[in-house]
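Hi R.,

As promised on Friday, here is the backbone we talked about, encoded as structure tokens. Could you run it through your design pipeline when you get a chance and send me back a sequence?
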């Protein structure tokens, strides 16, 4: 063992005061080797200095402040489960009421779905009627907007051409707005260059 110096782990064993089978050769090497003895003494001074420091207790809210800054990964299913659990009452009676009301709603929705499936023609008729009325209201509102923006004669001319006329009018309006914005931006840039 004289041909090599002690490893840091072996010096730690001696500093800790360990006893056992492998410690006596380390102690005998330490007695013979001046370099290892110097390293051991330096390490022992550090250990003694650390042990002489006062033992400080953290403030009562230390752990809470640290945990507020730690981002804890929580899987989506755990977050979803906790959210659902917070919606339900904690008492047995409250949970019974919630599950009972949920069961009644499920049965009602099932019966309503079966009833609607048997009367699919009526559902389709009402759906088509609502869609047609909505489309009519949309186009009437659009025509009112065109009358407001362009005047009655232009709106009549556009509506007489149908959907194609409406698309052309809207495209022209969008191009006019974009052209005006570009022109104003160009004028502002020119004015700014003249001032500089």
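Update: got your reply. Pasting your designed sequence below so it's all in one thread:
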């Amino acid at each position: 063992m004289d041909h090599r110096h002690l490893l840091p782990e072996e010096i730690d064993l001696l500093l800790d005061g360990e006893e056992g089978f492998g410690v006596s050769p380390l102690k005998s090497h330490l007695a013979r080797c001046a370099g290892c003895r110097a390293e051991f003494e330096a390490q022992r001074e550090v250990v003694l200095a650390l042990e002489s420091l006062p033992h400080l207790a953290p403030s009562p809210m230390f752990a809470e402040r640290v945990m507020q800054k730690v981002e804890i990964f929580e899987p989506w299913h755990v977050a979803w489960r906790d959210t659902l659990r917070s919606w339900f009452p904690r008492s047995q009676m409250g949970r019974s009421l919630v599950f009972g009301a949920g069961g009644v709603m499920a049965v009602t929705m099932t019966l309503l779905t079966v009833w609607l499936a048997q009367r699919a023609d009526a559902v389709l008729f009402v759906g088509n009627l609502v869609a047609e009325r909505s489309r009519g209201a949309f186009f009437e509102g659009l025509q009112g907007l065109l009358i407001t923006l362009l005047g009655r004669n232009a709106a009549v001319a556009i509506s007489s051409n149908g959907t194609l006329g409406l698309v052309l009018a809207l495209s022209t309006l969008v191009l006019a707005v974009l052209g005006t914005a570009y022109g104003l931006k160009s004028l502002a840039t020119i004015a700014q260059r003249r001032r500089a």
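One thing I noticed while checking it: The two ends are 84 Å apart (CA to CA).

Thanks again,
M.
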